[in-house]
Structure formats: structure tokens, C-alpha cells
Design a protein that fits this description.
By secondary structure, this protein is of the alpha+beta class. The protein has a domain at 1-28. The protein is built from two helices and two strands. A two-stranded antiparallel ribbon has the order 1-2.
Length: 43
Amino acid sequence: MNPTIARLRDLMNGHDAEVMSELFSPDYRSQQPAHPNRGFGGQ
């Protein structure tokens, strides 16, 4: 498994959103075209 994906999996399983958010750049933007109200951005 890709080390980044493995780390994300482990952090998700740890249920600590603050620590997990540190994997994302502050200017990160999630876009879900099929579900436009589910997008989010930043940490």
C-alpha cells in the first residue's frame, strides 16, 4: 500500500480529525461534482 494512503487510513481509524487535517495543505479544495454541497476546503 502507498505510504501516504496507509498513513491516512491509520489517522482516519484513530478518529482524530485535527491530526488528520495536517495531511492536507491549507489551500486544499475538495470538489464533488455529483454532490456539490459536500465539498470543503482548507485544513
